[in-house]
Structures are given as structure tokens and as C-alpha cells.
């Protein structure tokens, strides 16, 4: 996992081809843009005034679509998290041009060279974003976090807030953050460990230019502040899920555990990468030992994410208990409405039941429609991510034809044997004749074509011991 310099401009050309192939939207329809300009001028009506509270945001330095702001206060042995979420429903009229386009898109699509947003930038990056340049409408979830990390929703309030600072993962200092931030995050992490939860957060690819102006593909460093911030979002989403379950409504994020076959393949991948996975350690226990700053560990974290059964959305049903295996608890998405369509409706439901009102009929009806829409959007995002990775692998290996690599067989399927290179975060397929999962092999690169996003290997002999 390394920086890829791109003197031939293959990355830029490849990304442009991916955008065309997957029909990534480049612009919004005129009607949606006109509506966005109009609703961006709306003045909050009926929102409580919470501008005196010292909210801050914490995101990547370049982010401008800021969904979340937070402040923390102590209450005896508990910590109170006021988690403000952009009030997208205040701006978006059901059935309007913005709403229709959001249902068509489903979620923001991210590519290394830029994103295709769920909403126009004038909303997502300005009027609705919780930037520190003026008051913004928000829905504030007030979550009580006990000493053992247990969470409970105290209140859901539609309010106007004012962020005091736009903090960045890469530069934030402890003194910039609210008192209690580290303690609250530690409580959530301890509760996760007690539940047996296992969230996998591998590093993300990003495209940048070096000092000579050449494009390069790198993996963004994950900072400790980012992991702590994720704990706040987790606490809020779990509290929202509990609130909705108690009122027999909602839309939940669910995921089953990886099956035994997937875990066996992952053990082989770890072996191929030279990472020790003790026989007695479960996948959950093992995941907690991985460090995304180690390139081999980061590659394995990506493999673990791909090996999961996949998360999906499910509306509340009387005969089902929604469960998310990675969280080891019921879980809902409510904290990124500028980037995910479903969150807007979950927030509206929580706002209603949290204040003793019935969930609007349109929101309840949306819960039945959203799983299919979000699955389609998620599948598209997944295909784009895979295409970017395939392209990056091909660029990484271009010019190395004829070179041999140590690898391990991780799986045998209808399309051949899956292999994992020992020195690079590269997976590929080869002819499966005579191979079984776990076999060490030495392979020769026969082709690497960035334009087709394709690489090919052949057996070259036994691995070097």
C-alpha cells in the first residue's frame, strides 16, 4: 500500500473512464438547482435557540459538507453529548425537485478525485452545512453516556446552533476539543469491547498532486481524533435505534457475522501478508490488534471489510430484532443526512417520537421504499470503489511484467484460485489446477493494463523460503 506516482496520467484518465462507465452524475437538473437556491434562503421557524452552546465540528480538513457538530457536558457520573445534525428536512420539500433527485441518487458517491453529492453544493456545502460562519438549523440529539458506556436518548430538539470552530483530524489539539471528548470516546470503546463489537475502519484512498504537479494515489492517514469522533456518531446512532425500537418504528442498519468460510479465507490472507493470527483468537479479538498505519494490517482490514456479509437497511418489524454484528447492537443511520438519503427520514422519525408525536405517514411509507433505493446506491458505490482499486493495482504493477511475487491461495472458486500477494495489497485470480486454500505460491505477472483495470498472473514455482 503505497503512493502511486502517475507520470503517464493513467490515474486521471482511468478515473474519468470510471465516471463515464458508471454514469456518475456531474451536475444537478436545473429544477433542483433553482429549488436549492430558493430554499437556501429559508429562515428557521420553530427552532429553539441553542446558539449559546459551544458546538464544534471535527472532520477531514478539506470537508465542507459538515453533517455533525457536538458539545459535551458533565452530569454527575454521566457525560451528556449534544450531537447536532444538519436539518436537511428543513430545506428539502417532499416531492420537490431536490427530493426527487435525492431519491434518484441515494447517497453521495466518493471518488479519489472528487465527489458527486446527494444535494447541490449550495445546500450540502453551504446553507445546510454546519459551518462556523453563522447560525444553522439542526436536530440535536441529547445522548446520556453512562460510566460503562451505555447510551440513552434524553431529548431530540430542533434547534438553531452556531459552530465555534471547524476542527480537522490532522491538526486538532486536545485543547481545541470540548472537555470530556476523550473520556466519552473511551467509554464508548470500552462498551464496544464488552459487547464483542468489531468495527473495521481501513484507510481511504485519496488522489493528490505532488510538488511537481503529478497526480498520485495515496492512502489517507487515519488519526486518533477520527476514531474518537466515530465513537460519538456510534453513540448517537445506537441511542436513535433504541428510541425508534421502543416506539415500534424506524429504519435500521443490519449486518450478519462473516460465516466460517469467510473467516477461513481471512486467516489465509493474514498468513499471506505475514500477520500472526493466533488459532484461539476470534475474528473480533484479532481485528482489535490491527493497526491501519501498518501497510500489511491496512491491507488485511480492507480484506475483512470485503469479506463481510454486507450491511443492509431494514424497516422495523414486530417479529424481528434488528442487529448489526459489527456494532453488536441495534443500530440506525441518523448522523449523515447530507450524504445519505435514509438518514433524513430516520431523523424525522426520531424527532417525532422523541417529542410525543406520531411519525408522519410519508416518513413511515419511506421506510418501506428506502432499503431498495439504498441497496442500489450502495451497490453502485461498491462497484466504483472496486473499479478504483482495480485501476490502482494495475497502475501499481504496470511495467513490472515478468516480475515474480510470493503469494498465498485464499480461496478456490468457479473462476479460479484467489491469491493475495505477500508484499502488496493486491488480490488476483489464477488457474486453480492443483491448488488448495492456504497453499503458498510464487506467481509471475503476465500483464498489467491500467486502461482495462486488469492484471494477470501465472504460476512461477514454489515461493522463496
UniProtKB/TrEMBL annotation:
GO terms for molecular function: RNA binding; RNA nuclease activity. It comes from the Bacteria. Residues 47-356 form the RNB domain. GO terms for cellular component: cytosol. GO terms for biological process: mRNA catabolic process. Coiled coil: none annotated. This is RNB domain-containing ribonuclease. It comes from Sphingomonas turrisvirgatae. The lineage of its organism: Bacteria, Pseudomonadati, Pseudomonadota, Alphaproteobacteria, Sphingomonadales.
